[in-house]
Amino acid sequence: MLIARAQRDLGHPDEALQAGYQLAELSKQADKRELQAQAEELLGTVYLQREDFPQAFDHFQSAFTLAGDGKNRPYEAVHEADIFIRVGRFADAERMLALALPSNPYVPELRVQMLLEQRKFAEAEILAARVAKEPGLPADVQYDLAVDRAIAQAFGGHARSAVTTLPGIAAAEGTPGDPASVATHNLNTGTVCLAAGDAECAFYAAATAESYFSSAGLKDSDFRSALIAARAARLRHDAVNEKLFTQKSIDILTELRNTWSPQLFQSYNSRPDIQSLGREFLHLSQ
Questions:
Q1: Three-state DSSP class for residue 136
Q2: Which of 186, 229, 253, 265 could, after both became Cys, cross-link 260 (CB 3.0–4.6 A)?
Q3: C-alpha count within 13 angstroms, C-beta hemisphere, residue 139
Q4: Distance from C-alpha of 100 to C-alpha of 89, rounded to nearest angstrom
């Protein structure tokens, strides 16, 4: 298990998946449910990193079921909540978060993320500000909360202020310099700049992010980056790039519709943030 986790954390997902599947099978044969649950959780986290939501969904559900009423149930519930949020099943996510340990520092940030996806920006900003004051938060949670608050401010009527604070957040919280983290920060920057009406900033940030996400095969982030780039291109009267990124968005959405289960696609497709972002370009409810 330690080797498989190390492979995942070092950026070797194929090796991590191979080790995870082997461990899941061996633990199943030996009837070691706790170890099997850990293997399923590992597989879910790797697929979540890849933004393969259907696979992550299945493995996290297996891990939660295998955990039963044991000591690991609250931890598996957090993973379940995470994937439920990403596919827009907010009631199920709330049900899982209620099972998590109150001391888990990732739970409040997941609640903030859920509020943002539901476009409840005032509530998200208040919660993010309150949680950020708690001592001992991990660095990644501090960064996520700061970015979440900036996005909530941007859509809540303080867009210009949010635009100017994002670079400072990256520096203060020590944003990792790996390509995935840089692309994610560019996506967040594009989101905030679009809310501020800064078309140049939004387009550059989103287009740069989209290039990475497309090459990495990260469909959810690629889809959202392309939508932001398309809207920003329209604002800057750039018909060529508006057409280019709109078509990219349509192609990704079509791929998801054809490869995900109808239920999972429909819940993802119904997320209020995605509906709002794509309404001008795509018939997302079809």
A1: coil
A2: 265
A3: 7
A4: 17
Q: Residue 77 burial (CB < 10 Å; 0-12/13-18/19+)?
A: buried
d(CA 213, CA 220): 9
Contact 83, 97 (CB under 8 A): no
- Residue scoring higher pLDDT (270 or 163): 270
Q: What is residue 284's predicted lDDT score, i.e. its pLDDT? A: 46
Split into its structural domains, the chain has a count of 3
The answer to whether the predicted template modeling score (pTM) of the entire model surpasses 0.85 is: yes
pLDDT in tens, 212-262: 999 999 999 999 999 999 999 999 999 999 999 999 999 999 999 999 999
Tokens standing for residue 86: 């990403």
pLDDT in tens, 64-118: 999 999 899 999 999 999 999 999 999 999 999 999 998 899 999 999 999 999 9
Let me know: does 229 contact 206? Beta carbons within 8 Å.
Answer: yes
CA 270 from chain centre, in angstroms, equals: 16
Angle between helices 73-86 and 106-117 (to 10 degrees): 20
Decide: 78 and 110 in contact? Cβ < 8 Å. yes
What is the extent of the structural domain holding 117? 105-156
The vertex-150 CA angle with 147 and 152, nearest 5°, equals 110
pLDDT of residue 282: 58
Residue 163 lies in a domain: no
Q: Is the pLDDT of residue 168 over 70?
A: no
User: Rounded to whole angstroms, how far apart are CA atoms 202 and 64?
Assistant: 39
- Kindly state the DSSP code that residue 68 receives in the 8-state scheme: T
